[in-house]
Write a structure and sequence with these properties.
Keywords: Cell membrane, Membrane, Transmembrane, Transmembrane helix, Transport. It is found in: Cell membrane. This is ABC transporter permease. There is one protein chain. Helix content is 79%, strand content 0%. By secondary structure, the protein is mainly α. It has a single domain, classed as MetI-like fold (Orthogonal Bundle). The protein is globular and about 70 Å long. The two termini are 21 Å apart.
C-alpha cells in the first residue's frame, strides 16, 4: 500500500493502523477547544447563580486561589513532599515490576504462583493498606512511597508481561539458533522490542503514583497536597479544594509528559523509530 493510500485510510475519526497512528501537529487543538468549552460552561453556570459557590466555585475564584497559593509559596511547600513520595514510589515500582514481569513471562510455574498475587495487590483498597503500612513502617515519606509503589506496580508489570508475550517469536528463535544466551537475548533483542510497552506502563504508573501519594497523605498524614486537601475540606473552603485538585492534576500531567518525552527518546535510541 502506498503512502497516499495509507494517509487516506488513516484520515478522519478512525484509523485502520492503530499501531502506526502518529499525532499530527494540531493534536492539541481538539483538547484545547474542549477545555475552553468546559470552562465557558462552568463559568456560565456559576456566574448565573445556578449553583451556590459552596458547592461549585467559579473558575475565576479557583484561578485566583491558585495564584495566591503560588505567590505565597504554599503551593510549592505542599507539592514538594507529594512529588518526592510519588517519584520514590514510582522508582520502587519500576525496580520490582520489570524483573517480576520478566520472570512471569519466561516461567510458567512462576507465572502460576505470582500472577494471582499481582492481581490481588489491586483488589485491596489503598485506604485499607495505609494503616498497615503505618504500623509496619511508621510515619513519613517511606510508607507513602510504598503506597505509591503498590498503586503504580500493576500497570508496569502488566505491560511488561503483555509486551514480552507479544514478541515476534521468529526473532527470538533466530537468536536461539545463533547461540545467544538469555542475558544477551534480553538485552539486545527482547529489551529493545518490548521497550514501548514497558515504558507505556511506567508512564501510566507515574501518574497513578501521584494518586497514591495524595491518598497516603490523607490517611497517614504528612505535609503534602493530601494534607492541604484535608485542611481545605475541613474548613469548607471549596475554592481551595478545587485549587488543590488542579495542582495535583497539573503535576500528574507534568510527570506524565516528562516520562512521555523520555519514552520517545528511549524508543528512538533502542529501535531507531518514534512511538
Amino acid at each position: 500500500m502506498t503512502t497516499t493510500m495509507r494517509r487516506r485510510v488513516g484520515a478522519g475519526l478512525w484509523s485502520a493502523y492503530p499501531a502506526r497512528t502518529r499525532p499530527g501537529a494540531g493534536r492539541w487543538v481538539p483538547a484545547t477547544a474542549a477545555a475552553a468549552l468546559l470552562l465557558t460552561g462552568w463559568w456560565a453556570v456559576t456566574a448565573g447563580g445556578l449553583v451556590a459557590p459552596l458547592y461549585l466555585p467559579g473558575p475565576e475564584d479557583v484561578a485566583a486561589r491558585m495564584v495566591a497559593q503560588l505567590s505565597s509559596g504554599v503551593a510549592w511547600r505542599y507539592l514538594t513532599p507529594t512529588i518526592s513520595a510519588a517519584l520514590l514510589g514510582a522508582l520502587i515500582a519500576v525496580a520490582v515490576a520489570i524483573p517480576v514481569g520478566i520472570l512471569i513471562a519466561h516461567s510458567r510455574p512462576l507465572a502460576a504462583v505470582l500472577e494471582p498475587f499481582v492481581a490481588l495487590s489491586q483488589t485491596v483498597p489503598l485506604v485499607a493498606i495505609a494503616p498497615l503500612l503505618v504500623l509496619w513502617l511508621g510515619y513519613g515519606t517511606v510508607p507513602i512511597a510504598v503506597l505509591c509503589a503498590i498503586v503504580a506496580f500493576f500497570p508496569m508489570i502488566t505491560t511488561t508481561v503483555v509486551g514480552l508475550r507479544s514478541l515476534d517469536m521468529r526473532v527470538v528463535e533466530t537468536a536461539l539458533l545463533d547461540g545467544a544466551s538469555f542475558p544477551q537475548r534480553l538485552w539486545h533483542i527482547e529489551g529493545p522490542m518490548v521497550a514501548p510497552a514497558v515504558l507505556a506502563g511506567v508512564r501510566g504508573g507515574m501518574a497513578l503514583a501521584m494518586t497514591g501519594a495524595v491518598v497516603g497523605e490523607m490517611v497517614m498524614g504528612g505535609s503534602g497536597m493530601g494534607t492541604l486537601l484535608t485542611l481545605s475540606r475541613q474548613t469548607a473552603d471549596t475554592a481551595s479544594v478545587f485549587a488543590v485538585v488542579a495542582w495535583i492534576a497539573l503535576m500528574a500531567m507534568a510527570l506524565y509528559g516528562i516520562v512521555s518525552i523520555a519514552e520517545r527518546a528511549a524508543v528512538r535510541r533502542l529501535q531507531g523509530v518514534t512511538t
